[in-house]
Amino acid sequence: MLLFFYAPDLLNFMKAYLGQDLAFYGVFEPMVALIKVASIGALIVLSPWFAFRISQALRAVFGFSLTFVSLFFFTSFILFFTGVLFCFFVTLPFGIHFLLQFGSDTVRPIIGVGKFVNFTGFFLLGFGTIFELPLIMVIITRTGVADAEFFKKNRRYAILIVAILAAVLTPTPDVFNMSLMGIPLYFLYEIGIIFSR
């Protein structure tokens, strides 16, 4: 609830790269949008707590060492924040700028605050989650489901999956913006292989 009072400032920060004001099309839309902004902010701020709870569960279920669980905890929220920041400062500005270029003198963009918040929140949380890929791979190998050799042998399938995820998680379908997601994601896959050994 505390973040709700800062939601207007957070929304102004989120739309800084738009270069225009947002519109609303219903009497409740601004309030609902601010609640969503506060909720997105809460999920991001509370990500260390989620990482801590997951690390505790992993230790209880699989008996991982305290050292491994501690590394998982710190690495998890670092990767999540990296994904969120990468999305906000790199992918979203480029993607939205590309989309707005389709406007003209007769077709001008009027962006609704509700759809903008949904759009931005989806990509911020999506990128933060996807950047956890190396940790997911390490957990898979530690639990014996697969090993590093499995990931090495299936690189071509990984490239295909990365391409699909990049197409889904980037705001535009052009090759440049897909590369902004695809290249880091494949790089994370290779990091996951290294730490899975």
From TrEMBL:
Lineage: superkingdom: Bacteria
Residue ranges the record marks as coiled coil: none
KW Cell inner membrane (keyword) present: no
Pfam family, one: TatC
Keywords, ordered alphabetically: Cell membrane, Membrane, Protein transport, Translocation, Transmembrane, Transmembrane helix, Transport
Statement: the UniProt record of this protein carries the keyword Membrane: yes
Compartments reported by the entry: Cell membrane; Membrane
InterPro entries to which the protein is assigned, alphabetical: TatC (IPR002033)
Membrane topology: Multi-pass membrane protein
Biological process according to GO: intracellular protein transmembrane transport; protein transport by the Tat complex
Transmembrane segment boundaries: 31-52, 64-96, 116-145, 157-173
GO cellular component: TAT protein transport complex
GO molecular function: proton motive force dependent protein transmembrane transporter activity
Function: Part of the twin-arginine translocation (Tat) system that transports large folded proteins containing a characteristic twin-arginine motif in their signal peptide across membranes.
Subunit comment: Forms a complex with TatA.
Family: Belongs to the TatC family.
Name this polypeptide is given: Sec-independent protein translocase protein TatC
Organism expressing this protein natively: Dissulfuribacter thermophilus
The gene coding this protein: tatC
